Every structure is written in structure tokens, then in C-alpha cells.
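Render this sequence as a predicted structure.
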Amino acid sequence: MQSLISIRQHLHQFPELSGQEYQTQQFLKKQLAPRDPDYLQEVATTGLLVEFWSKRAGPNILLRADIDALPIAEINSFAHRSRKENESHKCGHDGHTAILVGVARQLAQHPPQTGKVFLLFQPAEEIGQGAQAVLNDPEFKKWSFDQCFALHNLPGYPMHQIICKPHQFSAGAVSVAFRLFGKTAHAAQPEKGLNPSQALSAILQLRERFTQPKTDAQDFALVTPVYATLGEKSYGASAGYAEAHFTLRAWNQEHLEQVCKALSHAVKSQATAEGLWLEEEWFEVFHANYNHPRAYDLVKQSAARHNLSWQEMERPFRWTEDFGLLSSTFTGAMFGLGAGEQTPALHNPDYDFPDEIIETGVKMFVEILSQAQYNQAT
């Protein structure tokens, strides 16, 4: 385990942002190539796909870990703190990656009895582009998968506890930028121009119309303003340009799309009424995470076989995860791994993945693989 901890802490020291994980990719290749996998291929530019095959027919199982960091300045002072300014692993992807390296080591010693195991080290999870890039990669398209699994560490829960539920696990989300173009004028004669301030104010208030905050409701929707700007710091000019950015989230993809269309229509109506030219851009699409009952059962069985504490969630998480695209493409499940009740929250500047749970993550994944192969055989 100490070598896996060293790997995790090395990754923490040298984080790389989404789509820039070149050094991380090369470091992982050096760790994994000596394990003599049946197949090791770069995918999605900065990701890796590693495979271990048996000689007997069986299921193709995909395990995924995310490898990218966040543009957050670390405030910790321990020896393995980030060496990069304003970049750090504040979501625990360094730990997820170390866990999957541990699984690779186990598979090198004990190859799968049936079928094939695929380990995906996925880039660009934080911006919702990595899973799509993987699915688009010709090397990845060569394979089909019977089941796929992923985990995410969860501060605020007892260390080593497994947190899961069938069906909906986490929300889907998408971000949008609305850009309003008017006409600048002298600040003493604003009537000579077209100032978008009133439209901007009205658009920011639209969140109240389209938000359904009750998480136990099927039509739960959260519209969050995340950024807005108006004009320039030129005090002799009446503003002629404005932006409003939102993130929208809902439990399922269909309802999320309905809310997106409704918000877009309302913003267009407001811009038209004010005589403004409107541009809108949608990005960072995260599909809702769906746990198939059969895959969920494998997670639950695996936790029980290791006598791990189990918590059944009542409601899905409001946060999003790029694994949702994979779990909506293949039968799959994501589960939470408790990171400690006193551990700082994800994306906090003082967060650090607890090394104590690396072994638990490895055990869970190896047991899931064992159970999947057994179920196929019987």
C-alpha cells in the first residue's frame, strides 16, 4: 500500500488541469507498463486504456478513474502539497487514480478468470468533456462493455463507508452563457444607445421561475447564476454589452432539457423585447448518473463480502459526474467511498484525499470484478 500512497502523493504534487494531463498520462504509463497488461493504449489524447484478458469467454467489465485536477490554489502545507500555482487535486482524482493503479497490480498477479477487464484513466472529467472524448476515440470504439463501474470519495461520511442507491445516483447538469449586445452611448445621453442593464436584471431573476428546489420532487431543478458582467469601467459611457451565465441541473436528462428550452425561450423573449441581439452558448454537459439495478447489486454484494459499512441514499446527489455519460451508454453503477466525517469538502482549498481509503477502493473494485465474473459463470 505504501507504494500506492507514494503514487497518490506524487500525483497530488504535480496536478494537471482538464485536457492537459500529458505528464500524468506518461507517469501512469511508467507505473502500468511493467505490470505487463494485454493492452495499453492512449485514448482521448491524454487518457489511458489498460486491459487484462483471460483465455475464457466472459463479460467485458470497465472500471473508470478520473485523472484531472482543478484550478484551485492549495492552502495546505504538508510535504506533498501541489507544486503548481492555482492548480491542485481538490476532488480526489489523485486518489481515484491510485486506486485503479492498485487494481491493475492485483490483475497482473491474478488475471481475470473469464472475459476482459478494462481500466480507463479518463481525462477532463471536471469540464464534462472527457467521457465524450473517450467514446469518440477509435481505439475505445473497438470494444463493447457488459458493465462499467466508478467510485467517488465523499467527505462528510465515515471513512471506508460505501454509499450508493439504485437508479438515480446524481444529477445531470449543463452550463449556459447568454450574451446581450446593445449599443454604447455617452453616459450623459444613455437614450442615444441601448443599455442591456434592465434585460440583464430581468434575466438573472429568471432563476426563481425555473427552480424547483425540493429534492424529493421528480421535477427537481436548480438554476444557479454563476457569472454576470455589464459594460466596461469607462464612466463616460453607457453600457452596450452584458453577459449572464447559469448552471442548470435536474434529476433526469429529459427534464433538464425541458428546463433548458424554457429558460432559453424566456431569455430570447426578454432580449427581443429590449431590442437586443442575443447569443447563447451551452457547454459543460454532464449526463445524470444512473445506477442499473443489476450493477448496483454487485456493488452492494461486494461491500457486504468485505463487511464494509453501507449507507443507502434516500435521494440522489445534486452534484454531477462525467461518468453519467458512460453509465447511460453501458449498464453501470457509481458508488461513494466515505472519506471521513471531518475531511474538508470537495473543492475546498484545504481538501486532501485520505490515503487510508485507497486500500478500501482497491478491494471494492477487485470484489466487483470477482462477483461479475462469478455471476456470468453461473
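Summary. The radius of gyration is 23 Å. The mean pLDDT is 96.
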